[in-house]
Amino acid sequence: MKSALTWEILAKCSTTKARAAVLTLPHGVVNAPVFMPVGTQGTLKGITPDQIEGLGCQIMLNNTYHLGLRPGQELLDACGGAHVFQGWNRNLLTDSGGFQMVSLLKLAEITEQGVQFESPHDGSLMLLTPEHSMSLQNSIGADIMMQLDDVVSSLTEGPRVEEAMWRSIRWLDRCIKAHKKPDSQNLFAIIQGGLDPELRKQCIEEMVKRDTPGYAIGGLSGGEAKDKFWRVVSQCTDLMPKNKPIYCMGVGYAEDLVVCVALGVDMFDCVFPTRTARFGNALTATGTLSLRQAKFKDDFRPIEEGCDCVACKSYTRAYLYTVATKETVGCHLISIHNTAYQLRLMRQMRESIIEDRFPQFIHKFFKDLFVEKSAYPEWAANALRSVGIDILKDDAAK
Amino acid sequence: MSPLTFDIHASKAAAPQSSAARCGTLSTSKPVHGGFTTKRVIETPGCFMYSSKGSVPHLTPDTMRLQDYGGVNVALEQILQSDQPASFSKWPSTPTSPKFTLADYLHLQDLVLFCDLRDFSFSESTSSISSDTATRTSKLNPNTDRHVLLSTPKGVRQLTLDDYLKVVRQFQPDIIAALADNIVDTKESPQKRVRKSIDRTLKWLDQILVERQGGDGRAADRLVEEEKKRRKELKEKRKTMTKEQQQLQHDRDAASDSVAIQPVSTEPWTDVAVFAHVQVSHLEDERIWSAKETAKRDGVDGFILNANVLLSTSNKEEALQQLENSLGYLPSQKPKLVYGIHAPEDVLKAVALGVDLFDTMYPFQLTEDGKASLFYFGESATPGAVAAASTLSSSSTNRWINLWDDEHGDKFVPILDGCECYACKGNRHTRAYINHLLKTHEMLATVLLMSHNMYQYSRFFAAVREAVKTGTIEQHANAFHKTFGVEPIRTGEKHAAQIIVEAALTKRNQRLETAEPAVVDAIGSGDYDAKKRADSEDDADRENKRTRKVQEKEALMEDVA
């Protein structure tokens, strides 16, 4: 199908499956691997568009489900889409609205036609079809839009998983057909198939035939064992086309990002950094600081040495302790820092891939974050061993 | 030599006899540091930015600096920890670089930093009852000769003169309000208590001025303490003595002099300016006494008058007269700051009385209400502002719009056409978008509203200064009144749309309380209430053992909130 993007791989890691690339979208360039902050309702948690740009963010996520409720399709059409609506001139990605429904399963009825569910806001019945999802996303105007997929929890087993996989393929066809703006918006397919390698393989084969501009790995991050999670990711990246961006949905913890990049994933999103910020938790390379703790009362260091975000340039942990979770400014500052942290982590990975020292980066990353090898997550060690890096071995990289 | 300079500009136009309005520039000679190259000045009549816990509400330091205010007012009670001043020893200190002061701590090095003890600007009479902050200025127990009471984030605490002086030496703001016995004045306040507050305030002021020069301002206090101690000891001793011994002892005590006090040398802090609270009671004699006596203290760099005290016992007109009465006794060459005067037309009246400094409570409260100001003054109107004012029907609501109103939901126009604030500039953020942000409980709503309202308020003051210079303030004030009427009384009631949105959220939260975590996770939500939720379980020390799992659980709770 038509594509409104270009994908240029700049460098490949000589050890792992990691790659550095330039993704060019209608609203500008995106340096991959990339983390996309989540601005659910058309705003990133009190951070102004200028501040987000200032952090070097090139693409942000909005949720179709929420924007469909408010401001609603009619207003989005009237103002010319979500970019204009929120004063954001860079790229946007929207989900299909489907992720919300997997979680609303108790309230939802999934048929071939689509998903009917009770609005959690007012209890009214709503029907989300592939056509409706496309229509909404066309009104939003995001640079990347996601197909409506039949999501089942990653803990589900049996024939329901296969049914959902085949239905997702049929729905992809309906999405492609219903997509009105393939010249200015890119439709990504979402690979389903649960934790079953055979189903994943079949799904990829079918979806690749549809030749969408990019592909996402869906149906993960739903509470499955991490050792199963990475195996699915790695299998998918092996089978997916190398000339298109690969997006792993809902992944955002630092160690998950590093592992998934090593497994060949290019794009990520997660609400975690900004959400945890509003509880006063600041992310750093050496771990999370819970700034509400009294031990920071007399700590006159910035959140993170060397961070150039406005929180770190302006304030000490001692001051942030007094405003964290107390003042909206406290939320904004820590959200800004955490977003800066995520984007910096991605930038550092990208640079190390280009300079072909990604393995060294990985060793240092785990050492900084977990200090003791005994604290390294076993699944991460397993995953990285599968791409030729043993983080438990002594200083393999110097 | 005062660290503060207040230049009153010579007026070109002949001001009407009735007006004491003047323009000036308030600046400090302290060198700027902290990576800033220039220190801002305050053009008067002008404002200190109102702050909450050391930050201008809703504005991060970068967004705040898009405003052109020259200074900020920080209430000590909001930032003083319970273990301070004792824990100041833990503040960074290196022998080479300048002392780490409050300006460094709050990252306000480039602004004129004014510190008062309490948040006097925030008055219950002008604030929303439902607001988090409503308890800030609620009545505390009376102050004593030894201390004043502050309402800190961790509860009520006492602040002695000794503490105060340690705080000033560490914080070194550009301007500090002298320790004062500010009382809640009511019609029933006994004259004796009012006089007592004035006497205490003056005594502390004198002691502070001595200490600022490096003198021993507390010698007299220590003498009294020592004398008390000695008497107590004597009393104890006598209990164990026979009659004869007592007689003997008595003779000896009479013969010996009372305790001697060695003056203590103290560290001067002459680069901090001192503003004195002038007590503005509704009792005329006391009011005049306070003004006259405070005016005599040469070391005072400026005066503070809390109009909220007057407004609690008198109507606005009377309060302004009483204010004028106090101002009449104060030296004209020194700056005067007034709390409690916020609405534009009230500011105009106070400026005419010679008041120089105000605060930004007005734009802050508009913001909290979801309102965006449209009013203009004198020559400051953009064509868009004139058009906006002329399209609204009632003059009292010409001055602002409420973005909670449904009618703005589809208005893809900026708050005010031609406005150069961060929100309006380049038509980037529309009324419809802000309406959306309010209705989805998104925090960017107040960021944008605050940016706009603060900007417009500073424009208003710039226009007031211009009118003072050209002698047209009265004429423009009349025109303002004609177009914009008077500020409606702030009821503190929530907008109907806000009530609906909050009720829907509450209802949804109840539905979600029994739901699976994943459901809660998926729905997500505005997080405006997160901070309250977090407050309610604020025992931060308990979190030492937290794991990421716990954090995730909290995150879910947040979404329920």
Automatic annotation (TrEMBL), chain A:
<dbReference type="GO" id="GO:0008479">
    <property type="term" value="F:tRNA-guanosine(34) queuine transglycosylase activity"/>
</dbReference>
<dbReference type="Pfam" id="PF01702">
    <property type="entry name" value="TGT"/>
</dbReference>
<feature type="active site" description="Nucleophile">
    <location>
        <position position="269"/>
    </location>
</feature>
<feature type="binding site">
    <location>
        <position position="337"/>
    </location>
    <ligand>
        <name>Zn(2+)</name>
    </ligand>
</feature>
<feature type="binding site">
    <location>
        <position position="307"/>
    </location>
    <ligand>
        <name>Zn(2+)</name>
    </ligand>
</feature>
<keyword id="KW-0862">Zinc</keyword>
<keyword id="KW-0819">tRNA processing</keyword>
<dbReference type="InterPro" id="IPR002616">
    <property type="entry name" value="tRNA_ribo_trans-like"/>
</dbReference>
<dbReference type="InterPro" id="IPR004803">
    <property type="entry name" value="TGT"/>
</dbReference>
<dbReference type="InterPro" id="IPR036511">
    <property type="entry name" value="TGT-like_sf"/>
</dbReference>
<feature type="active site" description="Proton acceptor">
    <location>
        <position position="95"/>
    </location>
</feature>
<feature type="region of interest" description="RNA binding; important for wobble base 34 recognition">
    <location>
        <begin position="274"/>
        <end position="278"/>
    </location>
</feature>
<feature type="binding site">
    <location>
        <position position="309"/>
    </location>
    <ligand>
        <name>Zn(2+)</name>
    </ligand>
</feature>
<comment type="subunit">
    <text>Heterodimer of a catalytic subunit and an accessory subunit.</text>
</comment>
<feature type="binding site">
    <location>
        <position position="219"/>
    </location>
    <ligand>
        <name>substrate</name>
    </ligand>
</feature>
<feature type="binding site">
    <location>
        <begin position="95"/>
        <end position="99"/>
    </location>
    <ligand>
        <name>substrate</name>
    </ligand>
</feature>
<dbReference type="GO" id="GO:0005829">
    <property type="term" value="C:cytosol"/>
</dbReference>
<feature type="region of interest" description="RNA binding">
    <location>
        <begin position="250"/>
        <end position="256"/>
    </location>
</feature>
<feature type="binding site">
    <location>
        <position position="312"/>
    </location>
    <ligand>
        <name>Zn(2+)</name>
    </ligand>
</feature>
<comment type="similarity">
    <text>Belongs to the queuine tRNA-ribosyltransferase family.</text>
</comment>
<feature type="binding site">
    <location>
        <position position="149"/>
    </location>
    <ligand>
        <name>substrate</name>
    </ligand>
</feature>
<dbReference type="GO" id="GO:0046872">
    <property type="term" value="F:metal ion binding"/>
</dbReference>
TrEMBL record, chain B:
<keyword id="KW-0862">Zinc</keyword>
<dbReference type="InterPro" id="IPR028592">
    <property type="entry name" value="QTRTD1"/>
</dbReference>
<feature type="region of interest" description="Disordered">
    <location>
        <begin position="127"/>
        <end position="146"/>
    </location>
</feature>
<dbReference type="GO" id="GO:0006400">
    <property type="term" value="P:tRNA modification"/>
</dbReference>
<feature type="region of interest" description="Disordered">
    <location>
        <begin position="526"/>
        <end position="561"/>
    </location>
</feature>
<dbReference type="Pfam" id="PF01702">
    <property type="entry name" value="TGT"/>
</dbReference>
<feature type="binding site">
    <location>
        <position position="424"/>
    </location>
    <ligand>
        <name>Zn(2+)</name>
    </ligand>
</feature>
<feature type="binding site">
    <location>
        <position position="452"/>
    </location>
    <ligand>
        <name>Zn(2+)</name>
    </ligand>
</feature>
<dbReference type="GO" id="GO:0046872">
    <property type="term" value="F:metal ion binding"/>
</dbReference>
<dbReference type="InterPro" id="IPR036511">
    <property type="entry name" value="TGT-like_sf"/>
</dbReference>
<dbReference type="InterPro" id="IPR050852">
    <property type="entry name" value="Queuine_tRNA-ribosyltrfase"/>
</dbReference>
<dbReference type="InterPro" id="IPR002616">
    <property type="entry name" value="tRNA_ribo_trans-like"/>
</dbReference>
<keyword id="KW-0963">Cytoplasm</keyword>
<feature type="region of interest" description="Disordered">
    <location>
        <begin position="231"/>
        <end position="257"/>
    </location>
</feature>
<comment type="similarity">
    <text>Belongs to the queuine tRNA-ribosyltransferase family. QTRT2 subfamily.</text>
</comment>
<feature type="binding site">
    <location>
        <position position="421"/>
    </location>
    <ligand>
        <name>Zn(2+)</name>
    </ligand>
</feature>
<feature type="compositionally biased region" description="Basic and acidic residues">
    <location>
        <begin position="231"/>
        <end position="242"/>
    </location>
</feature>
<protein>
    <recommendedName>
        <fullName>Queuine tRNA-ribosyltransferase accessory subunit 2</fullName>
    </recommendedName>
</protein>
<dbReference type="GO" id="GO:0005737">
    <property type="term" value="C:cytoplasm"/>
</dbReference>
<dbReference type="GO" id="GO:0008479">
    <property type="term" value="F:tRNA-guanosine(34) queuine transglycosylase activity"/>
</dbReference>
<comment type="function">
    <text>Non-catalytic subunit of the queuine tRNA-ribosyltransferase (TGT) that catalyzes the base-exchange of a guanine (G) residue with queuine (Q) at position 34 (anticodon wobble position) in tRNAs with GU(N) anticodons (tRNA-Asp, -Asn, -His and -Tyr), resulting in the hypermodified nucleoside queuosine (7-(((4,5-cis-dihydroxy-2-cyclopenten-1-yl)amino)methyl)-7-deazaguanosine).</text>
</comment>
<keyword id="KW-0479">Metal-binding</keyword>
